[in-house]
Amino acid sequence: MNDQAKDLLKYKEKLENNIPTQFHVRMEVKNGEIILLAQSDQIVRILNYLRDDGLCRFKQLMDITAVDYPGRNNRFEIVYQLLSIKNNRRIRVKIYVDETVPVLSVSEIFSSAIWLEREVFDMFGIRFSGNPDLRRILTDYGFEGNPLRKDFPLTGYVEVRYDKDKKSVVYEPVKLDQQYRSFDFSSPWEGTEYVLPGDEKAGEVS
Fold first, then answer.
1. Does 45 score more than 90 pLDDT?
2. What phi and psi values does residue 156 have, to the nearest 5 degrees?
3. Under a CB-based contact definition with an 8 Å cutoff, are residues 26 and 37 in contact?
4. Which of 86, 94, 110, 175 has an alpha carbon within 20 to 30 A of 193's alpha carbon?
5. CB-CB neighbours of 82 under 10 Å
């Protein structure tokens, strides 16, 4: 174990000893990052603590995203990425929710959460109670469905584009173009049969 990993473990232990027991959190170090697993109804209090506590000072919310696991009872894993510039630390907070119960918005703690929660709402359909502007942000007005759900169909929807010839917005069936994709199932050790861009110059070197 190198010095950086030891330092990360020591910091994790300090956090575990410092976080109030009523939060009922679990912490682990994975892939060089501290991960805090929390209960969904405690997310506002936990992020508020992580922002203000002197040992933490995670004052920047870098991102909110989600992962869909349809086979689980709580199918959605919501991930909050926090950064402490003062302590030069990062922490990842995870909660697990189903598709029926809204999640508490953290927009009163981090104003940037308003747009980040809108993106998760748009892509996954997860609702955030308390968000002052919860509406779609990436898809078009009137769009149906949530594109990053695992059960989202790839056909039966329309896409919107501006047609220069018609000089208007047109709605067309979604097309998944494949002509630019090259599926190569050969072993990576054997190499490809076709010439990769730039490799044709190798034969010119004498």
1. yes
2. 95, 5
3. yes
4. 175
5. 23
Cα separation, 45 vs 109, in Å, equals 10
With bands split at pLDDT 50, 70 and 90, how would you rate the model's confidence at 186? low
Q: Which residue has the tokens 């991102």?
A: 63
CATH 3.40.720.10 fits 12-140, yes or no: no
Answer yes or no: are the C-beta atoms of 139 and 147 closer than 8 Å: yes
Domain map (residue ranges) of the chain: 12-140
Per-residue model confidence as pLDDT tens digits over 121-149: 999 999 999 999 999 999 887 788 899 99
- pTM for the model stands at 0.77
Tell me whether residue 120 is exposed, middle or buried, using C-beta atoms within 10 angstroms of its C-beta: 0 to 12, 13 to 18, 19 or more: buried
